[in-house]
Every structure is written in C-alpha cells, then in structure tokens.
Design a protein that fits this description.
about 375 residues; alpha/beta; Metallo-beta-lactamase, Chain A; nine-stranded mixed beta sheet; seven-stranded mixed beta sheet; 12 helices; globular; binds zinc ion
C-alpha cells in the first residue's frame, strides 16, 4: 500500500473517530477497578523498558492510566508488569507520540487488557507498528480521542490530569519533528505534582511553559530519555522539580542521557533517578509527601510526612528481608543471604546490575528478576 494511501486512510479513520467521540468526555467505565494503590496513596511506576517510556499510574480511587508502552519487545514486559500490579483493565491509555519506543508495546497491551479510552497526539506515522496499533483500536472499537493543550483527562475523582501539549486544532498534526508532537501531562494529587513530557524538546517546552499553572512540580519525567534537545534550563527554572526520572536503556546507541542534561539537572540541584541503573522506579504519594521505592518520604511542606509508603509490589533490594528476596525466581536461601551481605558491604545499591557482583547471580537470573525489583 502506498504511503499516501496509508496516510489518507489513517487520516479518514482519525476524523471518523474524532467525530464519533466528539469531545474528551471519557465514557463511563463499567466494572470495578481491581488494581488500586494502597488506601489514599497514588502510585506512579516508571517501568524499566530499556530504551523507551512506559509509565503506570494507579490512583487512590482505583483508576489506572498507562502512558506509553515501550517498544515492541517490551509489550510483554509491560503487560506482565501490569498484571503483577493487579491491573485487570486500563481506564486511560495515552500514546504520547507514534515512535516505536513509545507505542511498540501498545499492541500487546491492547490485546491483553480492556481499555476504556485511548488518547493520541494525532500525529500519523507510516510504520507497521503504528498501523497495527490503530487496527487493534479499530477492531476493539475503543473510544479514541486526540489530546490537546487545555484538555483535562478524567481519571477518578482524586487526581487531576491536565494536557499541556500539543497545541492546535483537533486534527492530524503534520508539522516538523514528531517528538515535538508529544502529549505532555501534568498530574496532580493534592500538593504533589508530576510532569510527563514524552519526547518533547526544548522548542515545545518553551511553548507549554506558558500553559503551566504557576506551581512547582515534584517529579519530572525527563524529556526524550535525557537527550540534550530536551530539559532546557528554562523548564527547570519554571518548574523547580525535586526529582528527575530518566527513562533510558543501558548502553543505548544514542548516548542518553547526554552529559549536558545531567549537568543542567545537577546545576538545578535535582535528584536524578535512572531506569537504566535502577530498573523500574516507583513513586508513591499521599498527596502531602512522596516516597521513592519505599524509602523515607519527602514532605512537600503540607502535613507531616507519612510513614514510608509500600512500593507497589516491587521488591526493593536495599530493604528487602531474606524471605522477600527468596520470593524472587532463582533466588534461594544462599543467594538471598549473599545479596544482604553484599548490600551491607557496599552501603546503598544504586544500580540493579550491581547484583551481577553477587557470587551466583548471572545475567540470566538478573534478567528474570529485573522486572520485579527496584533499588529506589
Ligand atoms: Zn522516545
């Protein structure tokens, strides 16, 4: 099929869906949400999908949002991860932009879980991956809408989700760099705010900053895997994040994260967490404070800091008991003891790959346990 025909077909489909949905009102989702963060807690999981993005949000009232699904090879990783968190259905699925490291895993996710609503950038791609993603949405008749700056995405009654980018009419976007079409979301739970920037670059940052409500954010999902083309000083000055999460693959061919970004974050005194080093990273929040990987909470100056929140069913290798470690595949009594001895020796484990230094843990075991553990 020619590219032109494909685009035209995709374009018609977009228009039809846009017309059908009509607005951004999310259809009432029938059925109980089975995945929920612990009482009163929001959980945000930055899932380790190597070089790519996939962010799971579990709201205190049991709603589920997934922002991106990694590349094609990660589809199963993401589906398994969601299952392990007790997710049975997805209320809101966001495809920030149609690059394969963000939508490659969508087909698997869409096949595995009922999805109530898809939000898309409206940027068309000619890849098979994008076509497959549209086909499944079409076949399963899933409500589909384009997200635009100024929209509010409904996700239960306790958290707010504001769309900051892309701007413009609710039609197919066809300008410039695909990364600059990324859906950018501001997620708020009482005093705690997260900014998810997809792969948006500095050019977009400067524009969406004007739409950002005047508030500090606590957690920034760093744009474009830590590429120097994103995370400008202006963004950091305006949002004053406390923690920056960089989602990238170990030894990726792009050299992400770029040293310029690490320097900018360092100059702004932002704590940096990286999925290539730490594996999946889970942030929990009661709306007043937040906790990373179940470690001591950081208060935002509201109420007193709560007790360390449990991390969503991931095992923190820095704090887990021998018994908890033994629940991991391939980890028996001896290896659990060696892990504990190792962490006493090194202090804090900051990179899950350090486990390869534990006698008896090889690459195959690490691959098996990596989706189940975190060190933050
Ligand atoms: Zn990307």
């Amino acid at each position: 099929m020619s590219t032109y025909f494909h685009l035209k077909r995709a374009s018609k489909r977009f228009k039809l869906w846009t017309l059908l949905v009509g607005s951004l009102i999310v259809l009432c989702w029938v059925g109980m949400a089975l995945a929920a963060a612990a009482d009163g807690l929001l959980e945000v999981h930055f899932i380790d999908v190597g070089q790519g993005d996939s962010i799971l949000v579990l709201t205190p009232d049991g709603k589920v949002m997934l922002v991106d699904a990694g590349d094609q090879r990660s589809g199963r990783v993401v589906a398994n991860y969601l299952r392990a968190q007790g997710v049975r259905q997805i209320d809101v699925l966001v495809s920030t932009h149609p690059h394969s490291d963000h939508i490659g895993g969508m087909a698997e996710v869409l096949k595995t879980f009922p999805v109530a609503q898809v939000y898309d950038s409206g940027r068309v791609h000619t890849s098979k991956t994008f076509e497959e993603y549209l086909k499944i949405i079409d076949a399963k008749n899933i409500p589909f809408a384009l997200a635009r700056a100024g929209d509010t995405i409904r996700l239960g009654s306790q958290v707010s989700v504001h769309v900051l980018w892309p701007d413009g009419p609710r039609t197919i976007l066809d300008y410039g760099d695909i990364n600059e079409s990324s859906i950018v979301l501001l997620l708020g739970y009482k005093n705690v705010a997260f900014l998810f920037t997809g792969d948006a670059g500095i050019q977009s940052e400067q524009k969406f900053l004007t739409k950002l409500p005047a508030r500090q954010i606590q957690i920034l999902k760093v744009g474009h895997h830590g590429s120097r083309s994103s995370t400008g000083a202006e963004l950091l000055r305006a949002t004053r994040p406390e923690v920056a999460v960089i989602m990238c693959g170990a030894d990726n061919p792009y050299g992400h994260p770029h040293s310029q970004v690490l320097e900018r974050l360092g100059a702004a005194q932002v704590r940096i967490l990286r999925t290539d080093l730490a594996g999946s990273i889970v942030v929990t929040s009661d709306g007043q404070s937040y906790s990373i990987g179940g470690l001591a909470p950081v208060s935002t100056g509201g109420a007193d800091g709560a007790a360390p929140a449990p991390i969503g069913r991931l095992i923190n290798i820095n704090t887990a008991s021998a018994e908890e470690l033994q629940s991991l595949p391939g980890i028996g009594e001896t290896l659990a003891r060696r892990i504990i001895e190792y962490r006493i020796k090194v202090g804090l484990i900051t990179d899950v790959h350090e486990l390869l230094d534990v006698n008896g843990i090889g690459p195959a075991t690490l691959e098996k346990i990596k989706p189940l553990i975190t060190c933050f």
